[in-house]
Amino acid sequence: MRRMIFVPILVMVAMLAIAGGVFYWFYNNYNNYQTDDAQVTGHILSVSSPQAGQLTTMSVKLGDKVTAGQTIGTITTVPTTGTGAAAAAAAAKPATVDVTSPIDGTIVQVPAVQGQGVTPGATLAQVADLSNLTITAYVDEGAINNVKVNQDVDVTIDAYSGTTYKGHVQNIVAATAGSFSLLPSSDNASGNFTKVSQRIPVIISLGDNGGNNIVPGMSAEVTIHVH
């Protein structure tokens, strides 16, 4: 008798649990958009050689903090050839050119070596502004209509999965991610077109880093509160 009563109760509890799970799934998906197709992004600028010559000094190394306008190296230019006494005098005195950082930031790459020859445009160092990082999340085109500027966002970074960072939608890029690809996903010229769901880059502000060493390129997950 007790078993006959207990079995219907178990069935009822199971049905309620399933109904509760389905309700939570619909409720969560209505209020939030979640994706793990996201990463930390930031401004990384290359410091290039303005002229041909020799890299006489290189005064920075990986991890150094620099300020805008700070000299990070010097180049001794190659004397030019020309005609006349003035040109000969100029050619006899190589000039020294200072190489400066364009922004406040941190040196993240130094491919150049002191003493090497350089050409115009050669990358000497790369500097990143780690104080102004953002998250770039790729949102499915079917959900982009629900995403608006200034919506609140919860961010988790794979390297620091126990920490949730607060942010908000800063900008919605006016083009799909595929528009920036070097290899198109379809061959329209041949007439063979395969429809593929596109993703829209959404730029999300990242607040306080919580003391963690967050750097561009790290993988992230975002939850956008769309309702």
Q: Per DSSP, what share of the residues sits in E-state strands of 2 or more residues?
A: 35-45%
Number of helices: 2
Major sheet description: 6 strands, antiparallel, barrel
Radius of gyration: 28 Å
How many runs of DSSP E, i.e. beta strands? 14
Number of domains: 2
What are the segments in which pLDDT stays under 50 over at least 5 consecutive residues?
none
Average predicted confidence as pLDDT: 84
Separation of termini?
Answer: 49 Å
- From the spread of the alpha carbons, the general shape counts as elongated
What would you say about this model in short?
It comes from Dictyobacter aurantiacus. With 227 residues, the protein is an alpha+beta fold. It is built from two helices and 14 strands, in the order αβββββαβββββββββ.
